[in-house]
Amino acid sequence: MKPIDLRMEGTHQGAIEVARNRMIFVMVLFTIGFLILAVKLISIGIFQAHGSSYYRTGNSDGSLLMARADIVDRNGVILATNLKAPSLAVSKRNLKSPPEEIATKIAAIFPELTHGDVMKVLRNKSNHSWIKRKLTPKQLYAVKQIGDPGLETSDAEKRIYPHGRLLAHVLGTLNIDNKPLSGIEAYFDSELSDPTKSEEPIILSIDIRLQHILNQELSLYKEKFLALGAAGIILDVTTGEVLALSSLPDFDPNDGKGPLSKIEINRISQGSYELGSGFKTFTIASGLDNNVIKQVDGYDATYPLRVGGFTIRDDHPKKRWLSVPEIFVYSSNIGTIKIAQDIGISSQKEFFEKLGLFKKTKIEIFEKTNPQLPKQWGPTELATTAYGHGIAVTPLHLVSGVAAMVNGGCLTPATLLRKDSIPAGLLSLVPYRAQTDNASTQVISPKTSEIMRNLLHWAVEFGTGKKAKVEGYLIGGKTGTAIKPFENKRGYDDKAVISSFISVFPINEPKYLIFAMLDEPQGIEETFNLISAGMTAAPLVGNIISRVGPLMGIGTTQQNEVEYEDFMLVSGTRK
Amino acid sequence: MIKIFAAFTILTVMISTVSVYSLKQATYNLEEKKRDIRAKILMDREEIKVLKAEMSYLSRPARLERLSRRHLVLAATTTDQLALNVGSLTMRNNIQLASRPVDNFQLLLPREKPVLKGQLKNHKNIPLVRFIEPNAQEKEMKASKEGISLKSLYVSSIIKIGN
């Protein structure tokens, strides 16, 4: 059937034409609209990327961003870490429950806040006010359980030291605004607060177990002898790594306050003392190494010596000629001075300088002091420095020097970082390691070092350090009892001494150096009121060795073999 | 012909648009999921950090020492328990036990019920546990000293203890 072609004419035709035109116009509009939609759809589908995702405190690779990196010990035990510690604020406009109810609930969470305290905050005029800073995770959970939109928490972090006081002097602390005050925190501040490295911990050379042993024994002996303070260090003599460093009294780094008073300083690196007989190690090593003396040489120690108006006596007088080993073993001041006089001022000074005794130590904390040196070097200074008086150095100086005496003659600066794990970024901060491997310098010959090991061993076996003996181990050590100068620096106080003991074990194959000192120990009945180092510091170090040795798996030796006994006239020599 | 071509083109465009769009949507969903997971990971990491700190706090050497003293019978190693090498160990022939190991409790072992002798004539009256008389230890020791018995006291006492 053919469609009928109808055609209107006249006025009707005009109306239909208009209608058709309008329809076409509308259709065109619709077509354009749909085309635009289609094009847009395609362009959205193909070209347009999604808006970047929003990440909570993380960066694009999903790592957790914290304001400060962790510090761990050599075995990976966390010593300092940052935890989220939000602060709690209240926004009164958003508060839904009555303030009394909120105050009761909050006061129940924080034992240090009373209901009244919270009400005071809730009643003051400003809309937004802080209730409590640095919440613990448990407190935060409890606050969220209240579930009031008016309680707001802000993102903040708190530095946590899980071990508390144990490592206060090494780690240092941050103040309440997270600014470092002392210790490793201050020295490596830029590294620790670098946001790109917040997941790379700084690995210390400290071993927390040894630190505990050192700290425990030190505090025990500090109590026992009613000492003003005590300090100790355990050093690996082969690498110069500090395995434990303790100084008492200490502080709790979690409090956000550094060492408050003068007695809370780091005595190992910051306190400079006249350390006494420990220095005889250096004098005798210097003499042996410069070929001024030999082991078989002898000196007359019968009469006290007058040097520059002072009379110098021996603490353990033998009143006879002494061989070089005997001078060391019986800690004869007279003999040591005579050796020093043979060495001469310039050689002695040069040797001390080589040992780094004239400048600050290089350890990675800022709490360091310059040694106090004699103003001019005359015969008196030569004599007094020979046995460790008239020159005040930090214990760390002595420890590094003695480590060089026993480890084959290599002076390696003491470090607080684990040696095999220093990231490249830290190298610039560790000055001596920026150079190549030969950061350590040869200060005495290996042969002299071997003789020094023997001398140290004899001092424990027959001499002043007998109380440090530990069954099964070969120990070397030297006592040091130094009288303290008066506060006004005029003369010395005979009653106030610094007793120190520096020991190395196993002495046949030196590994650990243990140093302990007591500041002004008081005589007790057990030691017949004696306060010399042989009575106070030596047994302390002996105790530490007997605990550290088995822990670190140091094998025992069946019997203490002593070589070259003939050099000494010793009563009670074995066999 | 043109109509078919046009229809085909339009259809293709529509299908491809829809498929690209759905792909895009699927990717977006995955992104969303990834973002959620990442947020979860971050939260977990935070929690792990807290737990690690807690672990470090709870394993303070002083605390462990206190706990081990209270709950364990073990003590720290002493120097006389160490040896330089195997060669320096003594031969364990004449070792006497100072006391029984602390964790060796006396157990009640099953035994035969006591029966009257007349009741069961054919029953072989064998005890299940062999007793070593108290002075057997000394006898064994003497024997081992004289070199008669190769079995050392250490071995025999281990048998007795039942390890």
What does this structure look like?
The complex is a heterodimer of chains A (575) and B (163). Chain A is an alpha+beta fold and 575 residues long. Helix content of chain A is 34%, strand content 16%. Chain A has 18 helices and 18 strands. Chain A has helices spanning 11-46, 99-109, 115-123, 137-146, 168-171, 183-187, 189-192, 208-224, 280-289, 324-329, 333-343, 345-354, 379-386, 395-406, 424-427, 431-434, 446-461, 533-551; strands at residues 71-72, 78-84, 87-91, 128-132, 151-154, 157-160, 202-203, 229-236, 242-248, 298-300, 305-307, 310-312, 321-323, 410-411, 441-442, 476-485, 492-505, 512-519. In chain A, the strands form 6 sheets. Chain A has a 5-stranded antiparallel β-sheet with strand order 9-8-18-17-16, sandwiched between helices. In chain A, strands 6-2-1-7 form a 4-stranded mixed β-sheet, with no helix packed on it. A 3-stranded antiparallel β-sheet of chain A has the order 4-3-5, with helices on one face. The relative contact order of chain A is 0.10. Chain B is an all-alpha fold. Chain B contains 4 helices and no strands. Residues 126-130 of chain B have low confidence and may be disordered. At the A-B interface, helix 1, strand 2, helix 8 and helix 18 of A face helix 1 and helix 2 of B.
Q: Uncertain segments of chain B of ≥5 residues (pLDDT<50)? A: 126-130
Broad structural category of chain A = alpha+beta
Please indicate the percent range of residues of chain B in DSSP E strands (runs of 2 or more). under 5%
Give the termini separation of chain B.
97 Å
- Find the count of extended strands of chain B (DSSP E, 2+ residues): 0
The largest sheet of chain A is: 5 strands, antiparallel
Supply Rg of chain B: 39 Å
Q: What is the overall silhouette of chain A?
A: elongated
Q: Give the neighbour order of strands across the main sheet of chain A.
A: 9-8-18-17-16
Instruction: Kindly estimate the percentage of residues of chain A that lie in beta strands according to DSSP.
Output: 15-25%
Cα Rg of chain A: 37 Å
Coarse shape of chain B = elongated
Low-confidence stretches of chain A: 52-58, 431-438, 571-575
The quaternary state of the protein chains shown equals heterodimer
